[in-house]
Amino acid sequence: MVLLDTPVQFVKGIGPQIAAMLGEKGIATVEDLLYHLPFRYEDRLHPRALSELTPGEMASVIAEVRGTVLLRTRSMPIFEMTVGQGTSSMKCMWFHGTYLEGKFKTGQMVALYGKVEPSRSARGFKMIQPQFEILPEGEAEDETRMLEVGRITPVYESLGGSRLASRWIRRIIYHLLRHLEGHVPETLPAALLSRLEMPNREEALRCVHFPPPGTPMSHLQASATPAHRRLIFEELFYLECGLELKRRKLQQRAGFAFEANEKVREAIRQILPFHPTTAQKRVLAEIVADMRKPAPMRRLLQGDVGSGKTIVALQAMIVAIENGCQAALMAPTEILATQHYLAARKLLEKSSRGYRVVLLTGSLDDDKKKLARRRIFHGEADLVIGTHALIEEKVEFANIGIVVVDEQHRFGVLQRFRLMKKPNAAEPDVLVMTATPIPRTLSLSLYGDLDLSVLDELPPGRTPIITKQVSDERAEDVWKVVREQVRRGHQAYVVYPVIEGSKDDQPELDFAPPEAEPETEIDPKRAKKTAKAAKKSASLFEKPSLKSATEMYENLQATHLKGLRLGLLHGRLDAEEKEIIMRRFQRADIDVLISTTVIEVGVDVPNASVMVIEHAERFGLAQLHQLRGRVGRGAAKSYCILMTGGKISPAAEERLAAMVRTQDGFELAELDLQLRGPGEFFGTRQAGLPDFRIANLLRDRALLELAKQESARFVESPSAEATADERKRVWARLRDAWQRRYGLVEAG
Ligand code: ADP
Ligand code: MG
Question: Which of 198, 211, 390, 464 has its CA 20 to 30 A from that of 161?
Answer without folding.
Answer: 211
